[in-house]
Structure formats: C-alpha cells, structure tokens
C-alpha cells in the first residue's frame, strides 16, 4: 500500500486550506452542481464564458481535501483559457486519473498541447482508487457547466 | 469428444459424491448447474481474506473488494461482448432481470392497447411479468406459435409484430432444447419498431454469446445455470435505453441524492442495483466465467452437440416408439436438453424410479405451463446435459429407463 | 466482558488477516459484517455435497436440498419468533423486502392523498421506495422529527399518524445508533389504523428479535449484516396481509398456474419468491443464525452495551470537544454504532488516515442523506462495533485518531 | 434411502391402473380443482352432499401414480360418510403425511374415530417428502369441494 505522503502532497493541503476562486458568479454565468454519491460531497462550478474564452470561474460546495484541492487547482488552470484548451485539459487530467474519455463515434480528440502544472500533484490519487471520484468531481461538474455555457 | 469430460468431472466436488455406492448421474443442469472447485474456492477465499462492503467505504479492504466486484462486471461484459461494463446490471437471478424490464421500461412505455409479443415456448419468467402488466395496463399479448418439431413458426412473424412495442423471447427453450434464431428475431423486432428482449438463461451457459452480434436490446441470464453461484444474475441492456428508464428498486447505492421531498437516481449501473449487492456471488460468477472461458464456449457448444446426437441415437435405437423426445432433431438448432415421454409412465414416477439408480432429472412442467398445454401433457421428464456429462451418462439414463418399465408392469 | 471476544475473533478468518504486519481493526459492521468459519464452511460443504435445485425436482438430492432450504426458513422463523415459517420470505436483501412492501402492498392499497409516515433517521432503503410511490401515486409523506440527542421526537406522533395508512421506521439507526421503541411505535400505528413496517436491518444482528412481541406487520432485514452471506435477506409479514397482497416479481415458483391468458399465484412463501432463490446463501444464513444463537443474542446485546460505554468514555476522555459523537449517550437506547466528527477533518480524509493503521471505518452519508442535512454535515465518519470487537479495537481507533491530526497540521 | 417397494405398494398400483369413482357430477354437486404447482398435476373433485352425508363423489384430472391412487382411495373412503367423519379422516390422513392441521384459535378437533383402511398403504410416501404433495393433492381439493358444498 502506498504511503499517505503520495496522496497528501503539500501543495494539495495548501489548496485545501486556502482554496482559490471560491465564491459564486451571478447569471448569465453558467452553473452546475456535482454530487459524489459515495461520500455526499457537493461541488458548484460557476463559469463565465466570453466568446471562446473562459473569463471567470468560481467554485462552491464542500468536500474532502482531495475534492476541494482538485477544484481549487482546476479553477486556476481553466481561467483565461479557451474552451478547446479546457476540454483538452479535462482529457489530460482524466487520463492521469486513468479514466478513458469516450469520444462520440468517428470523432478524434483535437491535438492541443496543455500542461497540467500544479495539477500533477494529484497524480498520487490514482494509487487510491476510491479517491479518484473525489479528484474528478470538480472536473465532471466543469464539463456540465461548460455544456451549459456553450449551448446557450 | 471435444472436451475431456473425465478431467472436468474431477473438478466438480459434488459429482464425486456416491449414493448407495453408485456415482451420481446429474442430468438436471437446465434447472441449475453444479459448481466447479474453482468457483467454490474463489468464494471461500474471498470470504476468508477479502470480504468487505462495495462502493461505500474508502479503506483499502473495501477498495479492493469494490475492485474485485467491478472486475466481475468486466468479466461479464467480455463474456457476452457487451459494449460497456456499466450496462451490465447484477440482479438476483434472470427472473428479476426480466421483471426489471417489465416494471421499469414497461411501465414507462406501455399503455392500454400496446402489444408485446412472446413465443409459445417462453418460461414463466418471461410470461408472468407481462401478464401482470397486461392486467395492470391492459396491454395485449401475442404469441409466436411453434412448428411440429418444436421450433418457432415464423410464417406470420411480421403480422404478429405489426404495431408491437416489444418482442420478448427465449434464446433457447428449457423444455424443447430449441435454439431460436436470435439475430433474425431481433432484426424482425427492430423492423417493426419493437424492442428485442432476450431470455438467454439457457443460452449463455452453453454457447458463445455476443449481444452486439445479436443486436439485442435487453439480455437476461442467471449465474447458477453457468457453473456460478446462486443468488446472482445479469441483465444487460442497451445503454441509451437503461439511461432513459426510471429506477426499479429504490434504496442505497442507486441514488445520487435523496431529500425529504424526492430523490435523484445514480448513474449506471448503480441506478439499478439498490441495496447491498450479491458481493461474494459476483466473485463466484467471475470464477465461473474464467472456468468457462478456459474450456472455450465454442468447445462447450461442440461437446453438447456431440452429446445431443449420441443421446438421440441411443434413446431412439433402444426404445423406438416407446420414447417420445420433444423438440428438434437437428442438433444445429438444439442444445442437449431433452424433454420426453416414456411408455405412458408419469414423469414423476419415472423420475422417482430413475433416482433409485442415481439418475437425477426433472419431472414436471418446467415452468412452461402454456407449452405443456400445447404438447398436450401435464408434465414431461427432462434430461439436460452439460459440460460435465458424457456418453456414460446417456447410457446410464438409457439403462435406468429399462428398470422403470418393470415396476409399473407395462 | 460478556463475550469471549478472543475466541470469537479466532472463528473469523478475515480478522486474522494482517496488512503490513498489523492486525485489521474492522469497525464497519453496520455496513456489512464479516463471516465466521462455520458460515463459510456450511456454504462450501453444501456446494460440494448437496447443491441441487429447490422445489422443482423430485430426486433425492433435490429433495434434500429443498429440505435444507426450508430448514433455513424455519431457523429464521425461530430466530425472530415469527408465528409461521411460510410468512418468512427470502429476498435478495432488506432493500428488496422494503420495495416488495411498497410495490405490492403499497400499490394495492394506497391512493392519491394517502399518508405514509417515516422518520427523519430512515435509511434510503426505507425512503426511496416511498418517494417512488409518492411520485407515481401522489401519496403524502410525513416525517417524525428527532430530538437533539438523536432519538425520535414522539411529541406529535399521534397527529402525524392521524389518517396514515402506514408507518415505516427503523428499529435502529445505522448512523446514530439509536434504538427506537418499536413496540410503542407499532401500537401507535395500529391505534391510528396504520400498518407498522419495521426496517430491522440494524436491529436483528444485535438484539433478541421478537416480531410478535413487537406486534409488527412487516419486518425486513439482511443476512450480510448478521454474520451471514451476501445475496439474501428476509421479509417477514403478517400472514393475512401477505395473503391479501398481489405478487411482486413474476416467474417460476411463484405461480399455481399459468395460461396464455393469465396466471394464478402460488401459496406463501412461494408467491413472493419468483425464480431460483439464493440457495447456498440460505444455507449460509442458517449457519449464521445457529452461530448467533449459540452465543445468545442477549449476550451479544450486553456485549455491545459494554463496548458502547467503553467507546464513549474513551473517546470523550481523550478528545473532549475535539470529537463530536452523534446519537444518544444512554446505552439503553443505543447500539454500538457511532457517527462522529473529529477536529474539522473531513471524514473521507479521516478514514484514509485511519486506514493507514488498518482501522476500517466508513466515511460518507451512510445512505441517510436527509438525516445528514439535519445534522448539517455532508458526511460523518462511522465506527460500528460488533460481537468480534472489543476494547482493544476502541483503543486502536482512539490511537489512530491521534495520527490524523498530524497530517492536516490541525 | 428407502426402497421403492415402500412407495409403490401393490394396492397403490392397483388403484392407479384401475381408478375408482372416476368421472364428473353435474351441478348442484360441488366441484373443486386442485393444482400441484410442482409437477403440473391437476385433480377435479365432485361432491354430492345430502344433509350431512356425502352421497356421491367423483374424481377427474390426471397425475402420477401417487396422486391418482390417493384420489381413488380417497373417493372410496369418503363415499357414504358424514361430513364430520370426512373432516376427521382428512385430519388423520394428513397426520399420517406428517402435516399438522392448523385449527382456528380456540377450536379443538372433534374426537371422531375413523379408520384409514386401504389408505394406510400410502404411509410409505412420508419417506419421500417430495411425493407428499402428490398424495395430499386430492385431499386438499376435497376440503375445498367440501367448503363449497357446505356453504351453499
Ligand atoms: C437501517 C438500514 N436499512 C436498510 C439497509 C439496507 O440493507 P441492504 O443494503 O442489505 O438491502 C441498511 C444497510 O445498508 C440499513 O442500515
Ligand atoms: C428459459 C429460462 N428463463 C428464465 C429462467 C429463470 O431463471 P431463474 O430462476 O434463475 O431466475 C429459467 C430457469 O429456470 C429458464 O430456463
């Protein structure tokens, strides 16, 4: 069994103690809520998309250190990025969590270079399969908010 | 023979049992199959070292158990070539699977006057749920008739399917042994705009199963007939359908959220798996699938065609008109399950006398009373052969039949 | 202590497991319990020597298996002091039992505007089936509130029950550990003309159960929480009620007759046991009941009161305000299940850190989200003690909590 | 395991081959049908009750040697008997099959002397528990017919 130091890296605990971009955005910002049915955690993602750019993002809700720090780092990583870049980032992050994203028949993922940066600290989570859902909660909620923002 | 039956038998502890010094001739596998050592050991071992809750707790032991449970689901997916593991729902048996479809899909989609088509060789598990829906909703049931040799008579299939919402049929009859043309039936259902619901209870244990090649919408089967434990079954469904259906049983695990004023269901497969699942049983089913895959399902099928041929030859040769074997004579369209009548001896008496020689077979209506009425019998005797049976077992049956005549002085 | 825990532990193979050289401290029995050697052996032995179909075939092996299965039913009857064995229905788990009542009794008897009363400490298994009925039929749900120390607040019970058709409540909360006054609640239900439906999932494993002394109408519980196997549960019901109810799942075994135009259900218990039952699991449950009866359920209860007292004393002494134990402090009205908060550490993180010391407990909403909202938390950590736990396990938990603070630097 | 000779006594086989009182009775005779859900056997019992006496009985349906011979012997045993005697006979027969008849609360079975006669031949059935349902099918159907006859 891997040690806890693989999971609770300093940077993760830092984001947990001091979450970035916490708060809400008023409409017309997109908003989605994600539940982790396993542990009851909830995350709110608010997304302001102007043209192709995510100009602002806020995170609400509560959860464990992994889900909260993942949400916090996610908010930093997507702010100011283009929608295409963010989608690529989601794929990369999920890949790191060893989740294969299924693409609609025939479609291929566009080749966009994105760096995970701080988010790499979360790769220890993959050794604790139960916590993968904690780490991906914010990201799944992000996808929903993105869908809302781009469909409007 | 294709399979090395002696070495297979040696792997089934129960088949080693002797009663009154005689070996057991188990010919009731269409009812329920025996369990190989690897299945029993997998369950024992799991309970001794790895048993823990599924999907609920975060500690290592529970994470391992959850992973083992989900591996079982993946093994099922592979075994029936389902597109996604999440569409494999663990039920308590095939019956629950078929009821789930009738309750959840049926109640959400069927109104008075809607038509569901069944066949005249269906098991009660694929009749009674529809009867209940008919009584509750006023849906109409239509029945595909049978030919004289016990196959589906498809002459009027398209007019029967005309306007139907669902076509629910067995892939193999548990009485006649008939294997139905599943792909063709699914195509016919779809051409009529109906769903294809396949009762694969008697098919999956004996044949290579490919739900995508069938193009089926729902497929139900039970672990206990395929060398796996009792207490677990499978319903596979097309993802879009399962996602569109309301939940069936409500409770833990199947929810995303519960409030005092309502609830939101979880994603697949949890949505249809309320409460604590059959945990140890899933581990056992996985071991059974591994066991079957090691033998190779194509080999199992070939073996059973050999046994079926030998059984028909032997019984007809020895008893001629005294024995009446129901179902098709062509082994291409039948499995190794034989219902039969013998010299006017009531099946119940026959089975009692055969039991005296340790030949275990079922006498009764086999949960297909409508078919019994068609065959114009109350009951039949049924010998069903599986991967651990061989010619000796056919011979033992034939020998034991001899003894049956004596006692009734016929 | 009342029980000789060392010798009991020795009978549970999994509890012998060492991870990283440390022994396992299993504190998740309210989720699912571990299995003693006798249960594992009974199942193994049955599969090796006696496995056969139930209720269907006439040969000796099948007759023996059927008898063993029915003996298990009789053991359950005795264990809960039910008046007749035929009113003991084997389900797949407690969840199915509660759904059976909601689907069969509920759909036959409840109309728009009818009232069902629940409590605010119900498990999702005793909420969601009623939510589904509420959405489908427009019945009204009312909720018995809780007192500050996590007991039922019965002040307005009779007005809540006024006009109610059913009162469905837990005999013991899986989160708070609260034991409810079941007899009093049944009486109150009956006085209002309502049925009393008892979720006894957390009660039967830990206490002497007497459904007649309760005067309950339906009682549901699961084998896997009482040292028995997964894949089987029990619904007991008052005979006249069960007889008056329509069937739930349709299929083999539950019918007296099936025709192409309808069916007639079988007598109890078969009527509610469609399809092949959890055969091996019933044998395992029987062994679990024998095991529990040998220990004596009154002794189990006494032992758990001792453990509960010791746990409250130890944790409060060592951690004072840093730990928040939910539920009653009086061991007369609580079992040895404790939900708690610790120093603002999220339960999920807490459980992860405790797991590092092999202390296995559950973190989450425990399938009682409405109660979590009341407690104003998303999740709690929960330590649940059973007959194989003793003071050392309490101490191990207390020691491990120490380590949790370090990592989060709190 | 007991031998088959315990089950298939000569007298049983005789009743099976040559069933007594076969046929139907037209209304107003009482009529009940019994099913053995296990094996699909069906038995019809027709009962003519005049005053307190069973003046005629006929048996229809089909089944195995045990259910048929039991029905045949039953028909002989009840014909001409009083309703009270027949109820006592049913209890004695079920007792032989080791089935305890449950009486309504407070009621006691009246003490009526009845002999089983030929029916004793069926006692071997008790050693073959699966066949008990075969042997009792006719008797359960008789009770239903009796209830119909005496309620009218
Ligand atoms: C109080 C209570 N009721 C019902 C259940 C449901 O039991 P099962 O999951 O075995 O169906 C549980 C256990 O999870 C429980 O604790
Ligand atoms: C064709 C068929 N369908 C359905 C079933 C029901 O299976 P189970 O009893 O395992 O639910 C059976 C077996 O009895 C069967 O043979």
Set down the secondary structure blueprint.
The complex is a heterotetramer, with 2 copies of chain A (152 residues) and 2 copies of chain B (410 residues).
Chain A: H1 10-17, E1 30-35, E2 42-50, E3 53-62, H2 65-78, H3 83-96, H4 129-151
Antiparallel strand pairs in A: 1-2, 2-3
Helix pairs in contact in A: 1-2, 2-4, 3-4
Chain B: H1 5-9, E1 18-19, E2 22-23, E3 25-26, H2 37-49, H3 60-79, E4 88-91, H4 94-109, E5 115-119, H5 128-137, E6 140-144, H6 157-161, E7 164-170, H7 182-191, E8 195-199, H8 211-214, E9 218-222, E10 233-237, H9 239-244, E11 255-259, E12 262-265, H10 279-295, H11 297-319, E13 323-325, E14 337-342, H12 347-355, E15 359-360, E16 362-364, H13 369-375, E17 380-384, H14 391-408
Parallel strand pairs in B: 3-15, 5-6, 5-7, 7-8, 8-9
Antiparallel strand pairs in B: 1-2, 4-10, 9-10, 11-12, 13-14, 14-17, 16-17
Structural write-up:
The complex is a heterotetramer, with two copies of chain A (152 residues) and two copies of chain B (410 residues). Chain A has helices at residues 10-17, 65-78, 83-96, 129-151; strands spanning 30-35, 42-50, 53-62. By secondary structure, chain A is of the alpha+beta class. Chain A has a single domain (4-151), classed as Sufe protein. Chain: A, CATH 3.90.1010.10. A three-stranded antiparallel beta sheet of chain A has the order 1-2-3, covered by helices on one side. In chain A, helix 1 crosses helix 2 (65-78) and helix 3 (83-96) runs antiparallel to helix 4. The termini of chain A are far apart. The mean pLDDT of chain A is 88. By secondary structure, chain B is α/β, with parallel strands linked by helices. Chain B folds into two domains: 5-27 and 296-408, Aspartate Aminotransferase, domain 1 (Alpha-Beta Complex), CATH 3.90.1150.10; 50-293, 3-Layer(aba) Sandwich (Aspartate Aminotransferase, domain 2), CATH 3.40.640. Chain B is 40% helix and 17% strand. In chain B, the strands form five sheets. In chain B, strands 4-10-9-8-7-5-6 form a seven-stranded mixed beta sheet, sandwiched between helices. In chain B, strands 13-14-17-16 form a four-stranded antiparallel beta sheet, covered by helices on one side. In chain B, helix 7 (182-191) links the parallel strand 7 and strand 8. In chain B, helix 2 (37-49) runs antiparallel to helix 10. The longest helix of chain B is centred in the last third of the chain and has 23 residues, at 297-319. Chain B starts with a helix and ends with a helix. Chains in contact: A-B, A-C, B-C, B-D, C-D. At the A-C interface, loops of A face helix 12 of C. The structure holds pyridoxal-5'-phosphate (2 copies).
